[in-house]
């Protein structure tokens, strides 16, 4: 049964990377990450949690664990879109998320792009996305809904990196 579920999830993710449109960037070379993930929760719960995390920055119920960046709601496409200012206030990245039901799970297709010339991002674009849907199993602190990420695939732009351990470091002020 577990192998069958893994195979089903893999089939659901095939081709998903091409389905989400990435935010525009004025930079001729910019880091970014495009991903597809299966979350074991209904999409309305995933969306509610993402919104709660962004809203929770102002009332103190949530803090971005990736260097205390600041997310803002935006309207650049998808089911949900944001921008994120790094904790040091120097850089802004844009994110687009598309959520689609996949049986009892939710398929997330998302992309984050740096808005300035960048070659390396030390995981920032991946973290920009992951921190809005990760669960306690990933080391994150949910606001209302805790869920498990069952499967995830990604593609990077420039020399972006994907490393969850780089995302959970709220006490430090790094990009």
Describe the protein in words.
This protein is an alpha+beta fold and 175 residues long. 21% of the residues lie in helices and 28% in strands. The chain has 3 helices and 6 strands; from the N terminus they run H-E-H-E-E-E-E-H-E. The protein has a 6-stranded antiparallel sheet, with helices on both faces.
Structural class: alpha+beta
- Helix fraction, binned, reads 10-25%
Between the first and last Cα atoms, what is the distance in angstroms? 41 Å
| Global shape | globular
Strand tally, please? 6
Largest sheet: 6 strands, antiparallel
Radius of gyration: 15 Å
The count of helical stretches stands at 3
Q: Regions with pLDDT < 50 over 5+ consecutive residues?
A: 171-175
Report strand order across the widest sheet. 2-3-4-5-1-6
Arithmetic mean pLDDT: 88
Topology:
Elements: H1 2-13, E1 32-39, H2 43-59, E2 70-74, E3 80-85, E4 92-102, E5 105-114, H3 124-130, E6 149-157
Antiparallel strand pairs: 1-5, 1-6, 2-3, 3-4, 4-5
Key traits:
175 residues; disordered C terminus; globular; alpha+beta; 28% strand; 6-stranded antiparallel sheet
Q: What is this entry, summarized?
A:
This protein is 21% helix and 28% strand. It has helices spanning 2-13, 43-59, 124-130; strands at 32-39, 70-74, 80-85, 92-102, 105-114, 149-157.
């Amino acid at each position: 049964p577990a192998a069958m579920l893994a195979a089903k999830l893999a089939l659901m993710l095939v081709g998903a990377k091409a389905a989400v449109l990435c935010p525009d960037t004025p930079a001729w070379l910019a880091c970014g990450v495009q991903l597809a993930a299966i979350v074991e929760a209904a999409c309305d719960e995933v969306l509610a949690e993402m919104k709660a995390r962004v809203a929770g920055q102002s009332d103190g119920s949530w803090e971005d664990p990736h260097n205390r960046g600041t997310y803002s709601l935006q309207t650049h496409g998808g089911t949900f879109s944001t921008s994120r200012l790094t904790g040091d206030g120097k850089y802004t990245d844009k994110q687009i998320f598309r959520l689609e039901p996949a049986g009892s799970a939710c398929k997330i297709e998302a992309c984050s792009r740096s808005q300035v010339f960048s070659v390396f991002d030390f995981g920032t674009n991946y973290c920009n996305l992951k921190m809005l849907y990760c669960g306690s199993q990933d080391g994150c602190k949910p606001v209302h809904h805790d869920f498990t990420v069952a499967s995830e695939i990604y593609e990077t732009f420039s020399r972006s990196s994907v490393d969850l351990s780089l995302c959970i470091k709220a006490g430090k002020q790094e990009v």
